[in-house]
Design brief:
By secondary structure, the protein is an alpha/beta fold. It has eleven helices and 19 strands. Strands 1, 2, 3, 4, 5, 17, 18 and 19 form an eight-stranded mixed β-sheet that branches.
Length: 424
């Protein structure tokens, strides 16, 4: 199949310029000022309205299958991602059974092959049972089928175990994507240990529970040479530790999520849709994360899309399950709150969501140029809409952005030349 996209605003060579793009089968075979439509199976005329960019990659989602399909499925989660402009999503191993051996991982891979709308590249666990303690998995037996290894949902609790995991992953060239959390510092907390927490008599999660483990792991990554990626950072100390480690040459990268860049604990309400882990932190933490995005300390933005049932999210801040959905609002909220306000450039946001994740996790694409894979999405930057969770494709409905007016929506997603979502 051949596609011709005319009069697009194309992100190519690190900048945005007007161009036509010709796709033949799975590959981009032309990018130029004026390409003839002769022979193309389909022609789209964007009329200088839509932005054509490499499709997004989300290195941290929860698709809940196998084991918890009442929350989300690979089919619904990947369809939501396709509608939002994603080419690739990487689900975390909070599953039943946990993908801690080839046999368990195969159950997830079979569902992916059957139901996924886009590319779904899962993580396997670091420890058996994803317990954050005990024994490491057999990394070598799964490394070719996964994005990397993570115990997301819990941190690896002992230095010796994390050192062993890093040594083994370093020898294999694999990446560890770590949820950093010191269990003994949690003390029953469920929101940030800040002003809102104290004023409303809640139990707080201290910032040290996150950054202390990042500090340990950066030291171990320096010692072992392991490729170390830090999940969903939320504190200013985390930014500072990672910035310093990068300056020392440690092979560390990190992500934060849209909600940590656009909300803080002053925005909390007594509602489960404001509860996630890590929690929303202070205004100082939020600004530190924005500074980290601007100076390159924060490499990518991932959603930590974490759907739950309505009942699980109906029990307020203290009783609700941790996690919110984010795939269908990620680019629009960041474009609205960071790009349109002049905090970061549009090109920087594309790098954070499309280009850099591919570089870190070895995923093809990331450029619109002749000979590159045709992995693209098209964004209508002028589309104004109000977040209504009832309209989500995801099974999850819990978002702190409910009722927000946002700008921009994806209108076309192409994966290896195949249209996987269209709303033009």
């Amino acid at each position: 199949m051949s596609l011709l996209i005319k009069n697009a605003r194309v992100f190519t060579g690190g900048k945005i310029q007007k161009a036509d793009v010709l796709i033949n089968n799975t590959t981009i075979c032309g990018v130029g000022a004026s390409i003839s439509c002769g022979g193309a199976d389909r022609v789209f005329d964007f009329q200088n309205k839509y932005l054509l960019i490499p499709g997004f990659v989300d290195a941290h989602v929860h698709l809940r299958e196998p084991g918890f399909s009442y929350k989300e499925t690979i089919k619904t989660g990947s369809a939501a991602a396709a509608a939002a402009g994603y080419n690739v999503i990487c689900p975390m191993p909070n599953l039943n059974p946990a993908p801690d051996c080839p046999e368990n991982l195969q159950q997830e891979l079979d569902i992916i092959r059957r139901d996924a709308v886009i590319d779904v590249l899962p993580f396997a666990t670091i420890t058996k049972g994803r317990r954050g303690e005990g024994e490491c998995v057999d990394f070598a037996s799964m490394k070719n089928d996964v994005a990397g290894f993570s115990d997301d949902g819990c941190g690896v609790q002992t230095e010796a175990l994390m050192r062993e995991a890093m040594q083994k992953c370093a020898s294999l060239g694999s990446i560890i994507s770590a949820h950093c959390e010191v269990n003994e510092l949690l003390r029953g907390g469920y929101i940030h240990d800040g002003e809102y927490c104290k004023a409303h008599n809640h139990k707080g999660i201290c910032s040290e529970s996150e950054w202390a483990q990042i500090e340990r792991d950066c030291r171990l990554a320096e010692e072992t040479g392991c490729r170390y990626h830090v999940c969903h950072i939320s504190t200013k100390e985390s930014v500072e530790i990672i910035r310093a480690a990068k300056a020392r040459g440690v092979r560390v990268t990190c992500e934060t999520a849209p909600h940590y860049l656009t909300l803080c604990d002053a925005d909390l309400q007594e509602d489960g849709r404001f509860k996630m882990n890590p929690p929303l932190r202070s205004t100082v933490d939020r600004q530190a994360l924005i500074d980290g995005v601007m100076d390159g300390t924060v490499d990518i933005i991932a959603t930590d899309h974490a759907p739950h049932s309505a009942e699980e999210k109906s029990k307020g801040l203290s009783g609700s399950a941790m996690g919110i959905v984010g795939l269908e609002t990620a680019f629009p909220v960041l474009f609205t709150k960071l790009v349109k306000t002049g905090v970061i450039s549009l090109e920087k946001l594309i790098e954070l969501m499309s280009v850099r994740p591919r570089e870190i996790f070895g995923i093809e694409g990331g450029e619109i140029k002749e000979g590159a894979p045709a992995n693209l999405c098209a964004i209508d930057l002028e589309n104004e809409w109000v977040v209504n969770p009832d309209e989500f494709i995801s099974k999850g409905r819990s978002t702190p952005l409910e009722g927000w007016q946002l700008s921009s929506k994806n209108v076309l997603t192409v994966l290896r030349g195949e249209i996987v979502y269209e709303a033009i």
